[in-house]
Amino acid sequence: MGSLPEEGSVYGQRLIPHLIDDIAHNNGSRTFCSLVKSSNIPDGFQDISYAAFANSINRLAWWIEENVGKSFTFETVSYIGPPDLRYIILTIAAQKTGYKALFLSPRNSVEANLSLLDAADCRLFITASKCPPTFEALFKQRDMKRHIMPELHDVIAKDQVKHYPFVKTFAEAQQDPFIVLHTSGSTGLPKLVVATHGSFTASDTFQQMPLLGYPPTMVEPLKDKRVFLGLPPFHSAGVFNMLAMPTYFGMIPVLPPAAPLTADMVNMIHVYGRVKASIMAPTIIEELVKIPDHLENLKLVDHVLYGGGQLSKEAGDLAVQKTGILSLMGSTETMLLPSHVPDKDEWQYYSFSPCLGAEFRHRWEDLYEMIIVRQPKWESSQAIFYTFPDLQEYSMKDLYSPHPTKPGLWLYKGRSDDVIVFSTGEKINPITMEGIIGMHPDISSVLVMGQGHFQSALLVEAKKPSKSLDEKEQLLDKIWPLVERANKDCPAHGRISKEFVLFTTPEKPMLRAGKGTVQRMSTVKLYEPELDDLYAAPQSVPAQVSSTSLDLSSEESLRGTLRYILAVQLESDRFTNDDDLFAFGLDSLKVANLVRHIKTSLEKAGSDYSQIHQRLIYSNPTINQITYAVMAAKGKSMYAGAPGTEQTRQQKMQSIFEQYSKDLPISARSPTALNPTATKSVILTGSTGSIGSYLLDVLLSDPAIAHIYCFNRPHSTPATSRQSQINAANGLTTAFPRTKVTFLPVDLSIPYFGLSRSTYKTLLHNVTHIIHNAWSVNFNLSLQSFQPHIHGVRNFINFSTNSAHNASIFFISTIGTAMEWPTAHRGNMPEKIVDDWSLPQPMGYAESKYVSERLLDEASRVSGVPTAICRVGQVAGPTNGKGSWREGEWFPSLIRSSFELGILPSDLGPMEMVDWVPVDLLAKSLTELFLQRPHNTSQPSSQVYHLVNPTQTTYSAFQATIASHFPHPPKLVSLSEWLAAVEREQDLQKNPAGKLIDFYKGMVEVGEKGKKMVVLDTARTKERSEVLRGMEGVKGDWMEGWMRGWGL
């Protein structure tokens, strides 16, 4: 039976010392916990009653008073001993005598434990008669009073002792220290956390959630059940489950022998312990499922619960076939987080109770950080604000992704500290990869590493360390299929190659926290020398590549060796010497590898390699162009004007325009106006992107839209699932009825968009409007690399001319296509196509969009295709506070880096004027515009709109709002001073602006040259868009919401 409130007390105000004494007095025979009788588990179990437990506490309290004395200032007393019931008895005995207990992990280093003792100002030690060697070393380095505690059998002896009272009320004790715990040290040295009585009473309130009409929390299946507890008593989860769970919820912990926990031991307890559930670290579950008998015996329990780390999906999917799998989420600072019991097939997901006060704020891709926000209604349930009473919100630095179809379900994806940021600025979350590889039966643990380097490396700890190189190679071959499986769903820049696998040595095992999880940062630091050697070695590219030197003797020989190296890197040789290599999988990591290889070859040849850099490859993305560039660097002057290098950027744009416009279809069809009241069928490209998800949400709510065909690139995750995740995180609809939405994987650059003929024919018959929003946002790529996108525009033109309804094309362009307007023109940029190839910003992204604008305009004139172009300025986060502004963009990155550096630009130079459009308002305005079908026989050209905020403000206007979110008032500096500080900070995780350094340099240069920024005329757009006409300038509360979304 769970403990009901005594008369005059309420859930959330019952102190654990009082409850233990009350239960012992009123129902003393009730079982508190169960201990094994010996190390041989089949010998049976000894039940400890509440009367015996309370008596043991009283006995130890009197022992403390007699041997140590009472405390009146909550002095800290540390205890070290075998992992048995004495830890829990001491916790309450220390409270009764005025102390607070501190428990150190024997797995901590001496350095870590010394720092914790210093932080706690602890000079008093109680130990068992025998201590681990690490603690004997600790006593030699620190002057401390040491007392030897009686043996466990003496502490729990049956003879009665006098009651030792605990006299404080909840009002008096709620903020008093209850116990001193420490964090696991997974991300560095462990930190001290003083948990108060209120930190524990908060969990008592979970019992009232069903009474308030909410689902029961995760503790419900454990009420009044015998539960095996495989967590150490010195760990916060062990203390919580030995005190809060029994006293508040009636759980009966069944404890293992005082020895290192193994899968065999747990299996024996399942067989002989009469337990209904088990709580243990995920590493033990992963060991259990590898042994067929142990896996089968999971049927003996109703539930297996885990905490302290992530259970791999592979292990969980095996275990859930035999029993229920539940995850307990919490931390030393927060205690147990209230969550609901998920459906069996969603065992990985969390559904957090409203009493937690959780908000999920977007960080990157599909990852969201959970923030606990203080809420007066739920304050008694929010343990974190007992631990840190001065905070208004708290981040555990945990990352989640939303369920693809069920709002409110969240999948844990690791900590933000786990995220690896490569030297290229790209990121990966290594947790899923580690879970897959770590499932191999010969592996104890793995870590994916690479922070600040150019690619991932893998550190492997084998159960039986390999003694020779041959044995390591054999083990690598054994685990390689799992590595390849992990690589399959990982971004290219995060994939592991065989040359980047390290094995631990017996002398340096992975460092572990008390809960058994690997201490990531400490282990990476431990292997830092080996890791540095690995990255410095010539195998920084695949072995067959690293052994191949570029043959610089002639153009043909260089071209041949380049082809070989790139064929290995791209795992394909289907490209010609004039094909764009980025279309065949060349990415930033492979570019970095190729540049290093070229530099090394030129250095060996005694040639200058100073002109070889990554930008050179992006600007020359074919075998022939790279060949000419390398030969020019080698000093062959004849290559200075080689093919592909002599054209100006304007000539390149014109050439590509002519390539795609020379054979536009000529239509005799008379432009026909679409009945305004007729229903519309729409193709929307890029619906899973930032703008696209909001556009889809608006279209779904419009009754005039009969059907939406969402075009997205093929992906390993189904489009419906990805769309649901993105929309759920942004507070948008996740209902996609098949009668209204069809998701189609497409390649816009190939015939029929890669669809079947029947599907394509259906689209030709149904579609009335096309909203073309999808475009690769990569400012490194050259115009040439954007040709597949331009080809896609041409394919849409062909589609329109063949479609039954002469489908209109609404192209979402960019202000970048008009960025150079002030250089040669006066006034504002007009809402029309201007024949000036110098207009776009000099980067492939803007140039490709300008070429596409011109192509669509030509298609209107030649082919009678109804087209409209909307040039969009800076898109900001939403106004409703539900979604967030993606942190990787220039302004969020500027703010994050400023926050970390403690400085803030006093102005933004040429970007000082703020005409940003929030993304939710942008989507509504775009919808108003595209529905006004551009059929106008008197002006057979593209209609042009400009979507920038007509109510301008300045960055300075909300500078104070930004500064108010900093921990200390930031120092205001010039933009150039800010840029210099950003360049000095090398840690890209805390300094994301470092990844966009060229962009900020451009801002500074434009400001120093006094160059004017383009201003877009919005007269026609305001006439056509009610949303734009009424749009307010960026407001302080919008900025507040964006700052909260960034966790600031």
UniProtKB/TrEMBL annotation:
Q: Which SUPFAM superfamilies match?
A: Acetyl-CoA synthetase-like, NAD(P)-binding Rossmann-fold domains
**PROSITE patterns recorded for this chain?**
AMP_BINDING, PHOSPHOPANTETHEINE
Residue stretches making up the Thioester reductase (TE) domain: 684-925
Q: Which UniProt keywords apply?
A: Phosphopantetheine, Phosphoprotein
A Pfam family assignment:
NAD_binding_4
Top-level taxon:
Eukaryota
- Indicate the segments forming the AMP-dependent synthetase/ligase domain, all copies: 43-348
Every Carrier domain range:
567-626
Looking at the keywords, is Phosphoprotein present?
Answer: yes
Q: Where are the transmembrane segments?
A: none
InterPro entries of this UniProt entry?
A: ACP-like_sf, Adenylate-forming_Reductase, AMP-binding_CS, AMP-dep_synth/lig_dom, ANL_N_sf, FAR_NAD-bd, NAD(P)-bd_dom_sf, PP-bd_ACP
PANTHER family, sorted: ENZYME, PUTATIVE (JCVI)-RELATED, PHENYLACETATE-COENZYME A LIGASE
By what name is this protein known? Acetyl-CoA synthetase-like protein
